[in-house]
Task: structure prediction
Amino acid sequence: MLQFITHPSERFSIPEEVQMAIEGGCRWIQLRMKDTPVEEIRAVATEIIPLCQESEAFLVIDDHVELTAELKVHGVHLGKHDMAPREAREILGPGAIIGVTANTLEDMTRTLGEDVDYIGLGPFRYTTTKANLSPVLGYEGYQKLVIEARAKGVELPIVAIGGITIEDLPGLMATGVNGVAMSGAIINADDPVDYTRRVIERLEEHRK
Result:
């Protein structure tokens, strides 16, 4: 599974980024616009919702639970300092996707008492898209945390995030994660559509 996370770029608008990721075959988009007024996020979301609908791509919005409910998109991704997942579930209802950010085993086991759908575990390496970066995990960190979390009964899909490139995929998928989230590697590629396509091909090869 590939999740594309939007990020401001000098080359492309966010709707252009989303269009290219979709053209490359990605069917999971996270709209992430940190430190941006909600009105701006709403305007961009309104542009990309039709793109996701046409391609049957999932769309989750980072942080903004109320906006997610208002626009009736598929779900929300919650950081460690955002609204509690339980409160978000009450607002969004049983059919919404709720993802949460994790960096430690404690973060992951906390999901056992919450009605959430996936864990975004990271960061894999240093990334400029995060202001308050948690400790970098690397391959060994992922392998250790996946094993420990599964032993504790955490069965949720785990999505690796944070500075990931196509070259990292074989080693990352070998740690037991279920998917990856990418942003800069796709946006900054010479051909973002082709890069996305190749990422998905690599991920599908691992599943065989």
